[in-house]
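Lab channel / #folding
Pinned by the channel admin:
"Please post every new chain as: sequence first, then the structure tokens as a reply. Keep commentary short and put observations after the output so the thread stays searchable."

First post following the new format, from NK:
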Amino acid sequence: MKGLQIVVLGSIVPDPLQTLEPIVGPTGPALKNEMMLPAVLDPWAGHALYEAANLAKQVEGKVYLVALGPKAKLQQVMMNVAQKVPFEINVLDGPAGGFTDAAETAKALAGAVEKLPGLDKGKLLIFGGWQSASRGTGAVLQMVGELLGVTDQFQGVDEIKMSDDGSFTVLERIEGGSYQLSSCQGAPAVLGWATGNLPEPPNNPQVGMANMRFIMPALQKAVAAPLKGEGLRFQSVEVPSQRRETRIVKDAPVDDIARELADWIRA
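Reply from TO:
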């Protein structure tokens, strides 16, 4: 099927190699020195973007990236992401942390998708991360699909194969390390990507220069999305505690070790 419109939903997250310390600020939970932390494209969204570009190349489609986050941080990250694959971007200027309401975020993203120029839902595929490095609920993408009336949804996708008639099959992760092969008659559909099968594309300065012609104006015209989070309350925020219990025993039978480990896990 030619002319697909592939919309990737993705935002930025603090670089996971940094020390992330949650605090309670004047407006609620936040990360310590969050605006000073280096940011990267959400790794889950990155897989979705690279898979979208690969599919668009096969079917002569077009890729849009709809990103919600602080536009100053987005500009820094896009300087690198723009060199990976060709896309057009639509920016919502708002918070991108892990303490925003999933429903409010989904409503803002769905509104941005609706306003994309020339949107044709008969050719629309919505890509995003199955999970998120900041909003790990896995709920935003599903709610965006529902708000747009797209009920064919696939989560944990690692592969998509498109047929000439517009139908496609997807390989979805299920329990126990197994896969489920699902088929869909065609767009519109929502695909939440796992890691996919593609490596991160190498930097291409020519692609970067072409993308920046669209990225800089989009950042300047970014629509404010404050995400007030009214009615949302957090009881506490803290780094998960580490627990380590070590006991040195010599010459213990294997069965006793296994039994003790099972008892410890159950407890």
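NK: The two ends are 54 Å apart (CA to CA).
TO: also worth noting, Residues 5-224 form a domain with the Rossmann fold fold (CATH 3.40.50.620).
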